[in-house]
Write a structure and sequence with these properties.
two-stranded antiparallel ribbon; 169 residues; mainly alpha; 2 domains
Length: 169
């Protein structure tokens, strides 16, 4: 099941790819899309390609330049850092450093995407949408801590994170 996702490539990033001779990747490759066509058990639906206006977008010229440098080093087999951590100054770039919750804020404003989740809630981590996380989402959810068996179907990982935050606030 690949449903209720939004895929959008920033035109500046697409231009960087073109300049470097790198093929921009779609939501799914042609091969994967064909699997969805061939096998009845595989479902791909309600996916969109809409521009998202991020509330706190890390899209500065400096970030684009560092992305281009990183991709160039990668395709030329030059040494590259473990991670490209340019949008969060001061963050430990060590890939073994476990930072949770992640500090990125990918909240956005787009009317269609704000209700495009499988349950009518915003796409993405509901912690980016505090009102949905604290009011709309918990309706009908269990009142006890989650166990290995979830009493109301199997939630997504974002739902569990939201539920834990709601219960610990």
């Amino acid at each position: 099941m690949l449903a209720n996702n939004n895929w959008w490539l920033d035109p500046t990033v697409a231009q960087i790819h073109q300049q470097l001779g790198v093929r921009s990747q779609p939501l799914v490759s042609d091969t994967t899309a064909r699997w969805f066509e061939l096998y009845d058990g595989m479902v791909m639906e309600n996916n969109t390609n809409l521009e998202v206006q991020l509330a706190n977008a890390p899209t500065t010229q400096e970030v684009y330049n560092l992305m281009q440098q990183f991709i160039s080093q990668w395709i030329n087999e030059a040494p590259t850092p473990w991670a490209l951590v340019v949008w969060d100054p001061g963050r430990d770039p060590d890939p073994k450093a476990n930072i949770w919750p992640v500090p990125e804020d990918f909240s956005y404003s787009h009317p269609q995407l704000e209700s495009a989740g499988t349950d009518g809630l915003p796409l993405g981590d509901l912690n980016w949408f505090p009102s949905a996380c604290r009011t709309t989402w918990p309706t009908g959810m269990p009142t006890s801590r989650p166990s290995r068996k979830w009493p109301v179907g199997r939630p997504s990982s974002r739902s569990i994170r939201c539920w834990l935050r709601v219960k610990t606030v």
